[in-house]
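Collaboration report, partner site 2.

Our partner group contributed sequences for two proteins of shared interest, and the home lab folded both. The records are reproduced in the order in which they were received, starting with the first partner submission.
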Amino acid sequence: MIYKQCNKCGKRVEADKQCECIIKAKKNYYKDYKKNRNDNKEQSFYSSKDWITIRDTIKTKDNSVCIGCLMNNSISNVDYVHHIETIKDNWNKRLDKDNLICLCSSCHRKVHDMYNKSSIDKRLMQEELFGLIEKFKKEYL
């Protein structure tokens, strides 16, 4: 087994794992971040029974794989069920199956990077994601 030294506390940890002190620090950071958010309506939605049900339905339909990776001939497990049109932009599509896509962390990060560039880049990325869903339906469903 290969080990590494934690950059924060100096403990020896398995190379493919994070040290407990890093995990704890991330949890504390996220707890503070979440407490100071002002989008309570959107955040409470993600804890709702309706969201959990539709999220799990989409994961099952897509075989729990990242559609972005799959359409690029790669296989990755799903980490996020992503709203193509965000719930802040279009609350009425929050439970619309055609507005949801399974993505891995890497693809999800790339999508949000494009969303944050400009409104034009965001719209182009949304069109690309809708296209991936259509391609997936034709090829796999």
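Second partner submission, folded after the first:
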Amino acid sequence: QNFVCLESLSERGKCVGVLADGSLKPALACSNTDEHAKFGVYLASTPYSQYPRQK
């Protein structure tokens, strides 16, 4: 599965997360393997008539 993590620039492997109640989990308490730090990407629209397909 493909996810995006918002990783800290100053401390590698530490990521910002979002808890179930919508509050942010700070990078000091969250790693890149934490489920709270994984964000799925969804393409809502594109200016191209046909966007590239995966090979």
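Feedback sent to the partner group on the second submission included the following. The two ends are 17 Å apart (CA to CA). The mean pLDDT is 81.
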